[in-house]
């Protein structure tokens, strides 16, 4: 197994060094687009009260219909100090969730440069740092309490993997590097470190890693082909359009391929480590089972895993795409037209590619696990059972002779 994995790991390390970003991109390219230069600044304030009164944006403008426009005006106390300010939050935001006293809001302060709208303050977003931080802490505690030290290692590996993506993969993409090479290199490096760190340096983990690498290769091949064959541009949302404007060297279709591989990496890791552990458990409970029996028993469990995981992937994307489905229901377009257009087509292809890689990785992982188990034993109960069985057989033979 190491004869297969060691060259792949060494190649991944060499590619990480070769593709390591040099910082040759404008890290502050969006500052001008966000109007945070030239005297304007991004500020945070705490909501104190909300009132229905004259809209700040209509101050100084001509009256409409013989009366001044009224709206919900939110008052904030700036965290940086100073007097209370009046902020007009877009009605579509307030329709979903009103601003309550104690909420923190991020806004753009244009008072130093002037504003043509009559109000020098522009709503940007709610500040969600505290609830998200509490949720992250709760997640870590639950994982550690239930899974113990292995869960703690998994959380640490997750944090390390995300940090590696931010430090290596994202800057390398922004510099215009080859997205497929970056995605394969980054995903392989993350899987090597995360799997061995969380599950230990053993044959079971190596089996899962081989299955994961196979699934990544299949996913990469399908992603490269389908991106061109289905004419996927990757330019179907405001974030992609912003990137294409401020970072013209980045490839949006390549970015889409990279996203497909990163998204598939986590699902593949899940199914391969579970399938590998399944074969080891089956071998320990039935140490004299043949390779054929182990494979088909493992695949019976694997088929259930395939079904449940495919449902998980599909429904996860369907839930994220509910607004698009709702818009389609209000138009005269057919369901097929909706699925094959724009960002919806990208999500459908993402589901199908990820599912194919997942389905193919399970029999491959199962087969590798069976070969390894039959060649080396499980290293645990299997080995002990074999020794005990041999001793029992020898004692029985001696008894019969006596």
Portion of residues within helices:
55-70%
Mean pLDDT: 79
Strands of the widest sheet, in order across it, are 3-2-1-4-5
How are helices and strands ordered from N to C?
HEEEHEEHHHHHHHHHH
User: What percent of residues are in strands?
Assistant: 5-15%
The CATH C-level class name of the largest domain: Mainly Alpha
Largest sheet: 5 strands, antiparallel
Q: Based on helices, strands and strand pairing, what is the structural class?
A: alpha+beta
Tally of individual helices: 12
CATH overall fold name of the largest domain: Multidrug efflux transporter AcrB transmembrane fold
Shape: elongated
In the CATH hierarchy, what is the architecture of the largest domain at level 2?
A: Up-down Bundle
Total strands: 5
**C-alpha Rg, in Å?**
28 Å
Uncertain residue segments: 33-37, 379-397
Q: Provide the number of structural domains.
A: 2
> How many angstroms separate the termini?
46 Å
Structure, described:
This protein is an alpha+beta fold and 402 residues long. It has two domains: 41-57 and 68-122, OB fold (Dihydrolipoamide Acetyltransferase, E2P); 168-380, Multidrug efflux transporter AcrB transmembrane fold (Up-down Bundle). 65% of the residues lie in helices and 10% in strands. It has twelve helices and five strands. A five-stranded antiparallel sheet has the order 3-2-1-4-5, with no helix packed on it. Helix 7 runs antiparallel to helix 8 and helix 7 packs parallel to helix 11 (342-376). The protein is elongated. Mean pLDDT is 79; it is low at 33-37 and 379-397. It comes from Glutamicibacter ardleyensis. Keywords: Membrane, Transmembrane, Transmembrane helix. The chain crosses the membrane at residues 126-147, 154-174, 180-198, 207-226, 246-268, 309-331, 351-373. It holds the Pfam family YibE_F.
